[in-house]
């Protein structure tokens, strides 16, 4: 497939399903990450599988192949909010905000906290009424009902500049 993105956990490729012809975004873990990556990919798959909302890109499949984990999401064509932020007018900004808030409310009601809301994780796809917002990348997500370890740790997950202060 054609590379369309990358991050700390792996690469994302545009890929066609051999049997169905469905185009998807295939997220594959970096080989060097090993067991830790498999754990995080399984966690992302379990949380993303809970979500079916028009403004959240759905997970289609997940698994492991040759000791590397993979996730298959529906492909959401379009630029990220980071790529077009300076081109959005007030109406467009309000629309993106409204869609994003609806998606986050739905995810929270389903017990999923995204934990990495950034302009790069928001895709603006062509829609029937202009651009539609599609939230991606649940790689740092957590279950809302998880018990948190109350010990202070030196590890913080998120994108610098977008991590909430709490």
Low-confidence runs (pLDDT<50, min 5 residues)? 149-154
Structural class: alpha+beta
Instruction: Note the overall shape.
Output: globular
Strand content: 25-35%
DSSP strand count = 9
Please give a structural write-up.
- This protein has 166 residues and is of the alpha+beta class.
- 23% of the residues lie in helices and 30% in strands.
- It contains 3 helices and 9 strands.
- A 5-stranded antiparallel β-sheet has the order 1-2-3-5-4, covered by helices on one side. A two-stranded antiparallel sheet has the order 6-9. It has a two-stranded antiparallel sheet with strand order 7-8.
- The longest helix is centred in the middle third of the chain and has 20 residues.
- The radius of gyration is 16 Å and the shape is globular.
- The N and C termini lie far apart (39 Å).
Which features would summarize this protein structure in a list?
166 residues, alpha+beta, 5-stranded antiparallel beta sheet, two-stranded antiparallel sheet, 3 helices, globular
What's this entry about, in short?
By secondary structure, this protein is α+β, with helices and mostly antiparallel strands. 23% of the residues lie in helices and 30% in strands.
